[in-house]
Specification:
Blueprint: H1 2-20, H2 32-39, H3 43-55, E1 59-62, E2 66-69, H4 74-95, H5 101-119, H6 123-138, H7 144-161, H8 164-167, H9 171-187, H10 192-211
Antiparallel strand pairs: 1-2
Helix pairs in contact: 1-3, 2-3, 4-7, 4-10, 5-6, 5-9, 9-10
InterPro entries: GntR_C, TF_FadR/GntR_C, Tscrpt_reg_HTH_GntR, WH-like_DNA-bd_sf, WH_DNA-bd_sf
Pfam family, one: GntR
Protein name: GntR family transcriptional regulator
């Protein structure tokens, strides 16, 4: 049983990673035989992995078509950003009491790396550093369920976000500036509500940039 669970988990990780890094494109069919051979298992653990990915809303099983990678349409993308604005604002506020100067300096260092990536127009690295910046904050959130929900939502959007700044690169310089402002607020918060409000608006600004990208 344990071996079967390990193979199912391995298959789950392989497929999920390929969806999130764009190797498997939206609408692409997942070939169970191929995955089973790669992970050295029968179809049963792979089917179990597919069921978990369906629950994660990364895959959809269709009659006569099999397991297909789900695409994230514009409506879902925008609604997810709206939800994240609320969740991330609150998580940032909750993290405030658990961050010290060393943690805040880490944010400054990451944001400086983002600035350098932007100057080199390395948008892939910029996007990766942006995620690193925010989760360096959320990692201090005492509400682990909240943290988990944020992490899952980011993962579902990673294929979109990985190319997101290519769609609206004009957002990137403002993002760096807002990060500097957020760092100042975390270092010297006027009120906790002010921190939450700014972090929430920061995410809404990304949504606005997405809507105005065309």
């Amino acid at each position: 049983m344990t071996n079967k669970m390990n193979k199912s988990k391995h298959a789950y990780t392989v497929i999920k990673d390929r969806i999130l890094d764009g190797t498997y494109a939206p609408g692409q069919r997942i070939i169970l035989d191929q995955i089973a051979k790669e992970v050295g298992s029968s179809h049963i653990p792979v089917r179990e992995a597919i069921r978990h990915l369906e629950a994660d809303r990364l895959i959809e099983y269709r009659q006569n078509a099999g397991a297909l990678v789900l695409s994230i349409d514009e409506k879902v993308y925008k609604q997810t950003l709206e939800m994240l604005a609320v969740l991330e604002g609150y998580a940032t506020m909750l993290s405030l009491d658990y961050m010290n100067e060393e943690d805040i300096q880490q944010l400054t260092d990451i944001n400086n790396e983002m600035k350098n990536a932007l100057e080199e127009y390395d948008l892939k690295t910029f996007s990766e550093l942006n995620k690193k910046f925010h989760f360096a904050i959320y990692s201090h959130c005492p509400n682990k369920l909240l943290y988990s929900n944020i992490k899952q939502s980011w993962e579902k959007l990673d294929t979109v976000r990985s190319a997101g700044f290519a769609y609206f690169p004009m957002r990137a310089p403002d993002s760096v500036k807002e990060h500097n402002q957020l760092i100042d607020l975390l270092r010297n918060p006027p009120t906790k509500d002010a921190v939450e409000s700014f972090a929430r608006q920061h995410k809404f600004n990304t949504l606005t940039a997405y809507e105005n990208r065309k």
